[in-house]
Every structure is written in structure tokens, then in C-alpha cells.
Amino acid sequence: MSSTSATPRTSPTLAAAEGTASAPVADTAPRRLVALIGRARQAAILVVLVLLLLATELDNHRFLSSQGIKDLLLDAAILMLVAVGQAVVVITRNVDLSVGSVLGISAFAAADLLAGGANPAWAVAAAILLGAGFGLVNGLLVSFGQVPALVVTLGMLYVVRGLDSIWVGPREITSQSLPAGYTDFGHGGLGPIPYLALIAAAATVAVGYYLARYRSGREFYAIGSNAQAARLAGIGLRKRVVAAYIFAGALAGLAGALYVARFAYVDATTGGGYELTVISAVVVGGVAMTGGVGSVYGAALGALLLTSINSVLPALNVSSVWEEAIDGFLLLVAIAVDRIVAGRVTSALRERSPHHG
Amino acid sequence: MNDSTEVSRTAAGPEAVNLEAAAAAPPGSGPSAAPTAPILALDAVSVSFGAVRALRSVSLALAPGSVHALAGENGAGKSTLVKVLAGVLRPDSGRVLVDGEPTVFHGPADARGAGIAVIYQEPTVFPHLSIAENIYMGRQPRTSFGRIDRAKVRRWTADLFARLGVALDPDQPARGLSIADQQMVEIAKALSFDARVLIMDEPTAALTPAEVDRLFSVARALKAQGAAILFISHRLDEIFDLCDTVTTLRDGGWIATEPVAGLGADDLVRRMVGRDLDSLYPKQDAQIGEVALDVRRLTREGVFTDVSFQVRRGEIVALAGLVGAGRTEVARAVFGIDRRDAGSVQVDGRTLRPGSPSAAMSAGLALVPEDRRAQGLVMMHSIERNSTLTGVRGLTRGGLVSRAAERGRAADWAARLELKYGRLSDAVATLSGGNQQKVVLGKWLSTAPKVLIVDEPTRGIDVGTKAQVHRLLSQLAADGVAVLMISSDLPEVLGMADRILVMHEGRLAAELPREGATEEAVLAAATGARSASEPAAGQGGAGVAQ
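^ Those are the sequences you sent over. The predicted structure of the assembly is below.
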């Protein structure tokens, strides 16, 4: 028995791999093609964004003033945070419809604590924890209940909104009862860059780096790409799905706390309908609802683009009734482009494949 | 004989060195030349799925430095056994022993931790992720702070491919890979584990002969280093080529474990089937009628060029060639799934609208695809639902599908195809590979096609089911159906076809009549040994010598 366990453990794979540097000359064209298209998506959003802003600036010279940029970034920051959390969930081929309700209840929790004189750090932490708690419930129901995420989180959307209404009632918390330092933070920044935008950017980069460079991060993509293969690869599906929902919940909670800082107003309807804006941002940013594709950077850019459109319309004196129609149109264009590009890439790869038989 | 517990407990005893003793231990291969206690064993393992008893008290012992074959028909329990060894399924009773110790695998990760690597019958890849990520998912090499060392992932993958002689780019995403390439990715993945036990469930089904050779030399190298290998294949010659010992299963029960040396193919088939097969390739003589399928100068840029052929009623025409010669692509273009750049397709004298599978279907064309899991079946739907997918029209009453009519037709086909199943309402995913193939066939046959195109109809199917499929194709031809059969299985091609078309690099390289066609002639044309421009008369076919 000792002989069996001693002998074969060292197969030549690694030894050979470390030793020989003679990798086969591989065709790098498909790699470039795919990397290009991945980046092209984000580049396309950036180009649209820049064109949009420049066009608006030509029409209305005060639009890109320091204050204009600041307002734009402030508006985008909160959507960005929630979109990043949502992107992680969508990458695992799930969805979280409860983020708007979670943002609302977390915002009220933070505001209530602040109004009661609590330490702002504790108020923010409480909002994050509350959001993470709802995320945990979502995650457990989706992964253990074997219920489609759409249904579970739709239920949670109403449950959390209901709890919020019962708790808040007709109350509202306004800037009078909030500490001035906290709302100042919500409007302050380094030059034209608001603190809120810095927080959102930091969260985006951190999550993006984690998803790209850590084993557990890649597993989110693996699960969304092919759950069966992920199971065979020994990935703990439930653990990861629960983690994704906790992530999304915590970021929605953080966004709630920052919402208080930004708007200095919370009531029982805060965050209502927000989930659909978030999902639009994620999809416009190139994260496929079918899982396994996209990045949080794309989702953040999508959030920035949607926010920009919403600020551009008043600057151009376009009636705000157009806003939703334009958002919806953009969403449909994004999905159509995804379908076409995905089809092209797959057939391009298929034709390059050495044996295609 | 097959009492693995006994073997492992008394590892040092001479009586423990049972089956593999003489054949297995390679002389001078280090410590493993000593006693061959099994690394991995099953002891009286049983597994049931509802009413179907997939494994009945099966025992098996995998010794180091030995290749163990697992033979059996479809539904004999081979894939179930693999899943038990891989930690995917937990046995209802019986034990799994690792190094003689009873072990419970709570999931695939546990089995992997015990040094067991598995190549599954159906490749399971992450389509959106790169090939390198597919191979190293969950165990990427890391640098500081636990970050993935991407350069190393890429280099290791490239080295694995160099070892396997495969030209695949590690950074290419897995989507768009052919089944053969996906299978090579699976093989590379299994090799990357440094496994003590390598389990290969039909790894060769989609591979070219050169790739099979490559795989076998890697397997032999692993064996020489003392790994235990379990090998499953329906190609008996591969079992005789590679394996030391063979265990046969039939209907979930253990039949025999014996050394391969001294065993004949007939013996093995008899153990698997439990009876003698009168003939494996029973193409009946059929009345050859008028032309049913007429393909003229079909071309698709960069894929295939100037392909013309005809298939007559009652005729079985084989389309042979190496994987990648463009056979599947021709079939897809004929059926209208892929676009074509030039050429025409006629069914019964009527020209088909290009790019329209529904037009092809209503003209009487049917295509049974190669990748049944992805293209032929809705895995989660029931057997009855799947087998009537193509022919719902005849089953409707007032615009709604009649469940009773659906069930009736499915039951009819299940009986004709000798389908092995629990209930017709079970999901197709619960069936074995061969039985899934029968459902796909049934689905298309229920449309009563005039022309049937079958792509690798017996890929991954056991001898018994294979014979049933052959009988069925032959019966269809006798009924006046024109059959175009794409196949890489040469004996099948030679036995079944009235005419053999051979493709080489996107062109028709030869056309051989039934009489006079030999394995050598087909291979020579397929590998381009004969000039492609030579008139494809076929008379020279018999004369081509090696």
C-alpha cells in the first residue's frame, strides 16, 4: 500500500510544463479577435458617451462646466455601485430584482441611525450589513430552493418594500435631521470628482480585479457559462451563488447609505423601480443575461451612459418624457448588437478551428 | 476474483496479485513493479434511478501501472460506474475504496482530491471562457496574494497541447470548438491533474486516428509511471490495443473480469451481448429506385468545394473521410442550416430553397445530427415530447397537441427502436447515450422522410444498439428511403453502404462502389494518398495497396 501511494503522485505534467519552453506555435488570431470584441464593446460605450457629452456641450456651454461634470458623476455613482453588484449576479446567470427595495430600506436605516445621532461609519456599516442580509436570503432561496432567481427576487422586491412601508410609514427623513457633515460629504469631492464617484470607481476596480484575477472570481464566470461543467470541476455552486447575492445586497446597501448623503431625503418609496434601471445599465454595459460574459467595468460604463442620457435631455431642452423611451431603445440596441456579434464570433471561431468535422 | 476488499487488505500476499500480475507490471518501472494493490476499487456497488437498476452489486479494482477496460452495451451501466468513481453519484449500497480504505466522495472535488481524473463521454466546457481557463478552472497556479498567474496557466496549457500534439490556442474561447477539439480539451484537463487514476469514458469517439494514437501513447506513458487507467470504448480494437484487463458489464451486472491477452473479439462481444451477433452489418438488398437527392456543385467558401453527388431511393450512400474533411458541413448545407455560396440541392426533382431547414423538411429531408446533446434533443424534456418534436402537426386536435396521440406515437417508436427506458415521461437526460440516439432517430423517422441524412449514427454506441441502428437503416432503405450516412467507422461504411463517397479537405476525393471497396482504398482517398483530381471512378479502389 505504501508503495502505491508513493509511486505515481509525480506525473510528468508539471515537470514537463516547467521545463520545456517549446510551446506549439498557436494561431493567435482568434484570441485577438475575441479580446478586441470584448474591449470594443466598452470602447463603443465610451465613444457614444463622449459624443453625447460633446454634442450637448456644443449646444449648451454650461453643460460640461465643473459643476456639470460633478452633477453627472454624482448621479452616476449610486447607479454604478448597484450595477456592479448586479453584474456579479448576472454573470452567474441569475438576476436580483430586489436591489431597488434593498437600497430603499438600507437608506432609511442609515438615515434613521444618523438622525438618532449615530456615528456615520456605523450607519454606513449598518446599511451594508442590512443589504448583505437580504442578499443572503436571496442567495439561499435561489441556490437551495431551486427556484428561478427571477421569481425569488421578485418576491423579495415586494417583501422588502412591504417591510420598508410598515417600518417607515408616512415618515420621511430630510436634511434637517441629518448631520451636516454627512450630507456635505455627499456633495464634496476632490476638484470636480465627487467622493461618491471615487467610492464607486474604487468598488468597480476592486470587484473587477477580483473577478479577473482570483480563482473564486473566475468561478462566477464558470458557473454562468456552464453550470454542469462547473459542478464537474468541483466548484461549489451554491456557495458562489449565495456570495454573488450577498455582494449585490451589500453594494445596494452601501448605495442606500450614499443615497442619503447625496439627496438628504428618504421615505418609504426611495429606490422604487430602481432595479430596472440597474439591469438596463448592466445589459447596455455588455453583461449578458445568459451568464458567463461581460465585466463590471462594462456595467459601470453602462451606468454612466444611462445617467448621462438622463442629464443630457434637460440640458438640450428635450422633454423628459423621452427619457424612458430612449433608455429602452438603447437597451434593445445593446441586446441586438450582442446577438449579432456573438453569432459572428462563434462562426468565425468555428471556421478557424483546426478540425471541424 | 473481483473481491476488491480482499485484494487491498492483503496487498502483500501473493494471492492478491491476481489478474494484472503478469501482464500489467512493466519490467523495470520502478517501485510499481512490486505488489499491485488497487489504488481505486468498488466493492459490491449498486445504484438505482427510480425503477431502473443501473448497477447491481458491481466490484472493480484498478491497479497501478495497468489499463483496465470496461466493456458493455449501452445501458449496461458503464457511465453510471464512471460517475460513482468520479464522485458525481453516491452508490445506494456498496463501498468505494481508495488505497484500500473505504471512502465517501461527497462530490467531484473529493474524487479529484484523491487523485482521480475523469474524461467524460460528452465534453463539458465553459463556452465563454478560454481553453486555458477551461483546463485549469478552480486550480489555476497562483502568484502573490492568491492572484492567478495567467502566464503560467497559458504556458502549462500550451505544454499540455504540445504533449498531445494538438494545435489549439490556449487563449481562444471554447465556444465554436468542434466536438473533437472539445474532447482534446477534456483530455488535456484530465492530464493536467497529475492523476493517479485516469478514467476515460469514450474519449476516442470523436478523434481522428492520429489523435487516438497520441492519446494512447500518453496513456501508456502514464501507465509506465504507475497510474491506474480505466478505459471505456466501443471500438473493440482499441481495447485490444491498449488494455491489460477487461471487465464486462451487462444490464448493470458484473459479467467477467479477465486479461485481454488470449481473449478474442468474438468472446468479448458474446460477454457484452449475451448472445452471438449473427451479423454486425446487415445491409439488405433493396430495390434501387430513381434519384431522390441530387446535390450539384455545392460550395461553401473555405469549407468545401464543388461537391456533387446523388442518392437514389433504396440506396445507402456513405460519406467517409477524416474528421474535418467537411462532411458534416456538407450535410448542414444540404439541409439548409448553413448557407452555401454556390450549387443546388434537389429532392425528388424539386430544388430546395437555400438556407431553410423547414423547406428541406417539408420536401422530405431529415437530418440526424452528430452532436445529439446539443442539436438533436431537448435534454430536459420527456422522451415522448422529444420523439414527437418534429411531427407535432399530425398530432393536433383543434390546434392543440393531443397528449394521448403524442404518447401513442412515442410508445410505438420506443417499441420499434427497442428503447430501454423507465417511463416515456422521463427526461431524455436520464437515458444512456445509445438510447438517446434512438430517440433522435425516432424523432426524425416519425416525419416519414424521403431522404435521411445521418451523421455518425453509431458514434458512442455499443455493439448491440449499433446492430439495431444498422438494421433500422437497412429497413428504411428497403422501404425506399434514400439514406446518406456520414461515418468514420470504416467497417460500418464498408458493411452498410451501396456506394462510398470519400471526402478529403473539402472535396470529394473518390467514389467507390460496394464491391471492390476496401479499408485501404477508403483510407488512401481520405488521407489524400490518391490525387484528388483523379476521376472518381472507383474501379481503381480495390487495387490500391498500402
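The first helix of chain A runs from residue 2 to 6. The two ends of chain A are 46 Å apart (CA to CA).

Shout if you want it in another format.
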